[in-house]
């Protein structure tokens, strides 16, 4: 498959999990005497639009990483920070608590929760700058999403089910999943999902990564038990759409699941081994074949370059698939990959020789965690800008 064809499939796959469309299909709950909306995360604008078209909203809060807000006098919009909460993230959380505290048992509070919500909606127990520094240190050290969220929950008044404890109203949480296994306790740090907050484990994680442990108060808001949660969209949904698009392009597919985790360049070795064996004919799987997978990897940052986990994986794949009839893409459905302007990258068996002729050494860029500049020089970046959704990352390999 040529690079442009695969790129078109990538873009159509992202569009397939449009939050407005997916949310509107799931707005089937009975309204309350009054209806309140609290939406936060990368998909919050689309989700809020769908909900406000189905229900008459008395008051609401939306916290998003985008800056184009619709004109709606009953819904207040905040531009929160991502990947780290800012002052607007905190204002959004405090205002939301004020609103849902005014709701009673006859009312309905609809939470619209999506990836990025941990940063875009926050009421920290400690100084915001200290919280952000702790988060940065954990990310730089390779902490996974479970470890990050365990610490975030312990240091927050709204995470770990605590947000739901601020209201007596009936609650329905519509959730777009951006985590492996669609774990409701992990998505956006599980703000409405009942769970036990393990403060000792959070302290142990900070010590593990040599992060200074701050002093913080224990929780006095208990999580609600009677909250209905509905998964609106997930990585599997996006992968199923990609399978249909690949079928239309003439390729059968296999789906490896949406639980791909680990360090990006190590995952590249494992997946690349599978692709290579298929290409060589050493597998029961017959080519031509597309191989789909999803999940969320990590990067242990040692250099000072630009990039993210998807570009890092694609860069590691350059040498693995050189001279082979394999085309590979790794991309985030949110349009954001690490500290770069790109979403991911596409490579094939010819990329290694092409970049060699340009005087570029993939290993050199990989050692500096500088995947973005490598792909920017070669024109192989996937750049979408923020997509308004987030169902983790996807890898597509076409083996011929």
Task: Describe it.
This protein is an alpha/beta fold. 37% of the residues lie in helices and 18% in strands. The protein contains 14 helices and twelve strands. It has helices at residues 3-16, 19-25, 44-54, 87-101, 117-120, 128-140, 145-154, 199-208, 235-248, 264-280, 309-320, 351-357, 362-367, 371-378; strands spanning 35-40, 57-64, 75-79, 108-113, 170-176, 227-233, 253-255, 289-295, 326-332, 344-348, 381-382, 393-399. The strands form two sheets. Strands 3-2-1-4-5-6 form a six-stranded parallel sheet, with helices on both faces. Strands 7-8-12-9-10-11 form a six-stranded mixed sheet, with helices on both faces. Helix 3 (44-54) links the parallel strand 1 (35-40) and strand 2. Helix 1 (3-16) packs across helix 9, helix 2 packs parallel to helix 3 and helix 11 packs across helix 14. The longest helix is centred in the last third of the chain and has 17 residues, at 264-280.
Strand and helix layout:
Blueprint: H1 3-16, H2 19-25, E1 35-40, H3 44-54, E2 57-64, E3 75-79, H4 87-101, E4 108-113, H5 117-120, H6 128-140, H7 145-154, E5 170-176, H8 199-208, E6 227-233, H9 235-248, E7 253-255, H10 264-280, E8 289-295, H11 309-320, E9 326-332, E10 344-348, H12 351-357, H13 362-367, H14 371-378, E11 381-382, E12 393-399
Parallel strand pairs: 1-2, 1-4, 2-3, 4-5, 5-6, 7-8
Antiparallel strand pairs: 8-12, 9-10, 9-12, 10-11
Helix pairs in contact: 1-9, 2-3, 6-7, 7-8, 10-11, 11-14
